[in-house]
Amino acid sequence: MSSPFPGTPQPPAAPALVIRRLHKHYGAHRALDGVDLTAGRGEVYGLLGPNGAGKTTLMKALLGLQRPTSGDIEIFGRAVGRESLSEVGALIEVPGLWPALTGDETLRVHARLRCVPEGWIDPALRLVGMTGARTRKVGTYSLGMRWRLGIAVALLARPRLLVLDEPTNGLDPVGIREMRGIIRSLAGEGVTVLIASHQLAEVAQVCDRVQVLVAGRTRYEGSLAGLAADGDVEAGFFRLLEASDAGVR
């Protein structure tokens, strides 16, 4: 699999992300209750589940923003830490950008903050299709363009794993289609993309495999075809939720 950035060494042969028996407890509340996850290199992996299922908690633990109660997280074969997190880019919310700056100026600021060469700006812009808008003020960008620029910021350090929380929230149909194309093109270039979403239809169109979380527990992991009931992914998803609800009563 080719590198998305010329001259960048390939990662080790280990999976991009491995999570084993991950727990996060807040007193008696178990936000994560023994979650396992394995995402391969160049894979688009979706985290599905209703609000409060534990998707964002898992992502924060992965990014070192929350300390798990127990469990292991490995990124390209290494435990979460400064070295392994250097392989990760993330966009958890709508990016906070400076409206008065151009896209190019925004990326130059972030390049300095991250101590990366300004020569890495152009490849990041090309990957998200923003080269033509680099000299425009961010204040003139649509929401979809802001998301693109936010992903370019996340890609500046040339990560091998990209973490996106609800990447299509607030986007119009054109923006959703653009975001889908960006995600698939990144995967095609060897970047692993982890997406958290509650929008089943969008995940179904972009992800290679999914995991369904309910109340902090894994209820399904595998292909979308395996999740479907009589060929209907949505029906299978809701059947799974109903079965999970019945099991906790």
Molecular structure report:
This protein has one domain (17-247): P-loop containing nucleotide triphosphate hydrolases (Rossmann fold). The protein is 35% helix and 24% strand. The chain contains nine helices and ten strands. The protein has helices at residues 55-62, 82-85, 103-114, 121-127, 143-155, 173-188, 200-206, 224-227, 233-247, and strands at residues 17-26, 29-39, 44-48, 70-75, 78-79, 88-91, 161-165, 192-197, 209-214, 217-222. The strands form two sheets. The protein has a six-stranded mixed sheet, with helices on both faces. The protein is globular, with a radius of gyration of 18 Å. The mean pLDDT is 88.
Report the uncertain regions: none
How big is the Rg?
Answer: 18 Å
Question: How many structural domains?
Answer: 1
Please state the average pLDDT score: 88
Main sheet summary: 6 strands, mixed
Quote the distance from N terminus to C terminus.
47 Å
Quaternary organization: single chain
Q: Pairing-aware structural class of the strands and helices?
A: alpha/beta
Note the total helix count.
9
Instruction: Give the class-level CATH name.
Output: Alpha Beta
| CATH-derived topology | Rossmann fold
The counted number of beta strands is 10
What percent of residues are in strands? Answer: 15-25%
Helix proportion range: 25-40%
